[in-house]
Structure formats: C-alpha cells, structure tokens
Amino acid sequence: MRVVLTAGGGGHTGYAVALAQRLTGRAELTFIVSEGDLWSFQRVSRFGGVVELPRLRSPDNPKPAILTMHKFMNSLIKSYFKLPQDTVVFISTGSNIAIAPALTTRVRGGYVVNMECVDRIVRPTKTAKILYKFSNVTVLHWEEQLRHYPKAVVVGPIYEKPEYEPYNGGYILVTAGTHGFKEFFDELIKLDLDKVVVQTGMVDPEPYRRLRPNWIFFKFDPDFSKWVAGADIVVSHLGLTLVNAALGYGKPVITIHNPKWRLAGSRDDAKILTEKLDGVFLEEVEASKILRAVKEVEGRKPPKYVDGAEELVKLLSEYLT
To answer: Are strands 2-7 and 28-34 parallel, antiparallel or unpaired?
Structure first.
C-alpha cells in the first residue's frame, strides 16, 4: 500500500521522519519535498522515493497573493502528474507544499490525513485550517488544539524515535532552525561557555568560527540527531526539535523566540509548549539572560507523553492491511 507524506522542511520534515520510522515495513512510502530542499531530501530518501514540488512561501519570506496563487497552480499541475497513482493515504505534515497534492489525492479518492503542528496551540496554521475543510481526518497533538478543530482526533505529541542512545557529552546544543537567528548567535558567542555546538542554518558560520574556535559551528547536518543525543541542554527556536530533544531524548530544553518569523508560531505558542516540556522560555536574546536560562534548566527531566506517531499509525491500521 502506498502512503505519501509531505516533508516541507524543518519540523515538517521531522514529522515525516517520525511517521516513516513507524511505517517502514508496513507501507510503501513516498515523500514530497520542496524543490531544491537538499536537507529534507537527505533525511527522507532512506525511507522511500522522493517527489519535488514548489513551496508557496516561507516563514521569513511571505510572497504576495498573486505570486502564491501562480505557484499553487503550478504545484497543482505537477501534483497531478508526479503524485503516485496508487496513493491510498496522503499525510500532510504541515507547510503549504501539502495543499495541492492533498487536493489531488482527495479528488482521486484517496484518504487524506491533515496534521497540525505540535507548536501551534494558540494560533493555528493556515495550511492545516485549509486542509481541515476537505481532509478525511485531522490529527492533533494536544487537547487545547481542539478549539480550532472540534472534529479532529488528538493522538498525542508526534516526535522522532531516538536514533542514538542518549548521553551527556558535556556540551550545549543550539539551533535556530533552517533559517537561523543571527541576533541570537551574536549574543550567544559573548558567553564564557566551554563547549557549545551551533547549527546556524542559512546564517554564515564562518565569522563565529573565527571568534570561538573551540566551539563547533555548522549550517546543516542530516544526521542532526547525533548532536541531540549527546547534548546536556538543547536550545532551539519553537518547533519539533524541542519536542524531539525533550520527549525523544529526555533533554532539558530552552526555547528562543524569533519575532521576525511572521508565519511561525506566536510568543504564546512558544510559552505553552515550553511549559508542557518543563523547559525555560527565553524571550529576550541578551547574553546575561541566555546564561540565566542555562543555569535554570540544568538537571530538569522532561515529562512523559503518549507516542502520538504510533497512535496515528494505529488510527490508520485499517488502511495498512
């Protein structure tokens, strides 16, 4: 049986990996990634085939409506020809890349699963709200999300299975996602910390390497989980990395908020998710406050929740036989 999952970058790709870990051996998997997204391709291609479609817009670069509509029509045409004809289940893991292929699947009679993001508790995503109107089922991570999707099913938080045994490697892991967060990195390097590993995303790591040669900086690593496994503390922007670190690897977490991401989760979303993970929310990116947050979160143990990805696979069991 064919299951198609979107992997629209960042945490959206992480959800696809989480589900692929549970679906491998039970279904034939195909992934949809954004055109040119090599990082997502590297992460999901080990589980199945990959199809590329255009992304309509991104958190740091919203496009005018006319350009978005043009890209949508392009995506719809490409979805019709590229989406496997034998698709039985289509799973949207978020990101606007999912809208056109979800519509194509529904028209062809396939079963469409619409997933809201784990960090969208107060402010829902536009993609999930659109897909809610015609999907067969919408799945949520938290009870609080039902206020936006009253007919949805709560499966619990969806996160990736640990790929490495957790250990304390004596370093702090910092990531600000695909697009990075230069203002935060500029403050971070002022701290007198011995070992820090920083994924800078699209921000150039070279200036930071010169200033802190004893730290590790890199743009991307498709095997990012190895860094999470050995971290003593994980510092991340709002998103799936926080949930993977806390629930998958049992790491204490600090959430950083980037107000420039207009299409990302809100400050309130960040605060609520951080509370659910028993982490520390860092709203102001000042060196002294970063250090205070590190000291505050040391030694904390995140709570336990049901495995939402496994619950979703159970929900789909009648289609997987």
So the answer is: parallel
Which residues does 64 contact at the CB level (< 8 Å), separation at least 6?
none
CA angle 202, 34, 38 (to 5 degrees): 55
Q: Give dist(CA 80, CA 146) in Å, integer.
A: 32
65 by DSSP, 3-state: which? helix
Q: Which two tokens stand for residue 112?
A: 């469409």
In sequence order, the β-bridge partners of residue 153 are 139
What single-letter amino acid sits at 125? T
Judged by phi (left if over 0) then psi (alpha if -120 to 50, else beta), residue 312 lies in alpha
Spatial separation of the C-alpha atoms in residues 217 and 231, rounded to whole Å: 14
User: Hey, CA dihedral for 212, 181, 221, 279, is it positive or negative?
Assistant: positive
Domains in the chain, ordered, with CATH? 2-157+307-319 (3.40.50.2000), 171-297 (3.40.50.2000)
If one compares 44 and 95, the residue with the highest pLDDT of the two is 44
Beta bridge partners of 45: none
- Pairing relation of β-strands 280-282 and 2-7? unpaired
Is the distance from CB of 120 to CB of 20 less than 8 angstroms? no
| Cα Rg of the chain (Å, integer) | 19
pTM of the predicted model, to two decimals?
A: 0.89
Q: For 251-291, write each residue's pLDDT tens digit.
A: 999 999 887 766 566 889 999 999 999 999 998 889 999 99
Q: What's CA 298's distance to the chain center, in Å?
A: 24
